[in-house]
Amino acid sequence: MGVNVAEVATVPKKPKKPCAKFSSGCPNLTHSRFCEIHEKQEEKRYIETRKSEPWWKWLHSRRWRKASRAHKAEFPLCAECERSGRTTAVAVTHHKIPHNGNYELFWDESNWESRCNPCHELEHKQDRFKKKEKGSD
Ligand SMILES: [Zn+2]
Ligand SMILES: [Zn+2]
Ligand SMILES: [Zn+2]
């Protein structure tokens, strides 16, 4: 079964849709929500918003660094990978229930789970998009 990667990558030929910034005058088409330019812009905006959140400070506090380090020592493997039978080293301590700035949820140890970077990014990308879909944005 010699399926080569280049072939697989070029197979889906879904038509492109207008960028979500179409209403603000963006003429670009895309396979995702935003065109490349706006994808980057949105990413930047997202990071800026994060920085003004209260939990941004928690995340960069010595308390969290210590807590997270201890948690990683206790759970040194990505839980998501483990569930699919892979063994990947932990990169971040993730919150199973998104804390959204909720102090209790953020510091609740039972809400923490180890993640490798790819799993973590994927998960946050998903809930970011979910939120956006529902939101007034
Ligand atoms: Zn655009
Ligand atoms: Zn993983
Ligand atoms: Zn996370």
Describe it for me?
- This protein has 137 residues and is mainly α.
- It folds into two domains: 15-52, no CATH class; 54-137.
- The chain is built from seven helices and four strands.
- It has a two-stranded antiparallel ribbon.
- The N and C termini lie far apart (45 Å).
- Mean pLDDT is 88; it is low at 132-137.
- One zinc ion (ZN) is lined by residues 94-95, 120, 124.
Q: How many beta-strand runs?
A: 4
Which hetero ligands occur in this complex? zinc ion
Strand order of the largest sheet: 1-2
Give the CA-CA distance, first to last residue.
45 Å
Indicate the radius of gyration in whole angstroms. Answer: 19 Å
Mean pLDDT: 88
Q: Tell me about the biggest sheet?
A: 2 strands, antiparallel
Global outline: globular
Q: Treating each run of at least 4 consecutive H or I residues as one helix, how many helices? A: 7
Topology:
Elements: H1 5-10, E1 17-18, E2 29-30, H2 36-51, H3 54-59, H4 62-74, H5 79-83, E3 92-95, H6 103-107, E4 112-115, H7 117-134
Antiparallel strand pairs: 1-2, 3-4
Bound molecules: zinc ion (ZN) (3 copies).
One zinc ion binds next to helix 5.
Short structural summary:
The chain is mainly alpha-helical and 137 residues long. The protein contains seven helices and four strands.
Structure keywords:
binds zinc ion, two-stranded antiparallel sheet, 9% strand, disordered C terminus, single chain, globular, mainly alpha, two-stranded antiparallel ribbon, 137 residues
